[in-house]
Specification:
Layout (H helix, E strand, L loop, with lengths): L1 H58 L17 E2 L5 E5 L4 H6 L6 H12 L7 E5 L13 H18 L3 E5 L1 H7 L6 H4 L4 E3 L2 E6 L2 H6 L3 H21 L1
Parallel strand pairs: 2-3, 2-4, 4-6
Antiparallel strand pairs: 1-3, 5-6
Length: about 230
């Protein structure tokens, strides 16, 4: 009888220890999952705070004369975690009114091309060299561009794109080099400071010269192929 009681007591102790170990493991796993979720939320909150601060600074900018007549500061549109960053020249009338880039005829043409080449909407972001409309849609001056470029560089750091597409000569001038010409380098991959850059025509140029449509389409197709390479590697 005593031996049986001893065996039962021993078995009971084993069961209690096993239950305690299981409970301890579950608590540890639960704590790890909670910590992981908190870390993820912390990262998201940090990025959100950075973007909010960036937006506040840009909207309050008065570093050049373009701020005098603007209706809206045009920061950009698209996914905040893009693979591709498209950079144009500056806002036009429609963009100034709506506060978004590429929403006029040129923008519709760009959207059509991206849709036709099956770019996912969450794969790209669109911005400009300057974020306020130059009077009469003229080309931004060097002073205006230089005052605004630090904001664009901050967007690079926040967005972290894998590819940059320069839309037109103004973007090429300030992103790739002031001596470069869009007609000479378009369609060719350029690497600069670790960035993969594809120069192509601005969509507005296509509205004036339809012969450029096929060339721009070919350039954007190369970008689409590059994204597919990223997916397979």
């Amino acid at each position: 009888m005593q031996e049986n009681n001893s065996i039962q007591d021993y078995n009971s102790m084993q069961e209690d220890n096993s239950m305690q170990e299981d409970n301890s493991m579950q608590e540890d796993n639960s704590m790890q999952e909670n910590n992981s979720m908190q870390d993820d939320n912390s990262i998201q909150d940090e990025n959100f705070t950075q973007w909010e601060e960036f937006t506040r600074r840009v909207n309050s900018c008065r570093k050049c004369g373009l701020c005098e007549n603007r209706r809206n500061v045009v920061i950009g549109r698209g996914c905040k975690t893009p693979e591709v960053l498209f950079i144009g020249e500056g806002p036009g009338e429609n963009e100034d009114l709506q506060g978004l880039p590429f929403v006029g005829q040129a923008g519709k043409l760009l959207d059509y091309a991206l849709e036709g080449l099956m770019f996912e909407e969450d794969s790209y972001y669109i911005a400009n060299i300057v974020k306020c409309r130059p009077p009469g849609n003229r080309i931004p001056t060097d002073e205006e561009a230089e005052q605004c470029l630090p904001f664009l560089r901050q967007q690079f750091r926040l967005l972290k794109p894998r590819v940059i597409v320069c839309l037109g000569s103004t973007a090429v001038r300030y992103i790739i080099g002031k001596e470069e010409r869009i007609t000479r380098i378009r369609g060719n991959w350029i690497e600069k400071k670790g960035w993969r850059i594809m120069p192509t025509f601005h969509p507005a140029a296509l509205l004036r010269d339809e012969a450029k449509k096929e060339q721009m389409w070919q350039d954007l197709y190369k970008v689409r192929q590059k994204l597919e390479e990223f997916e397979t590697n």
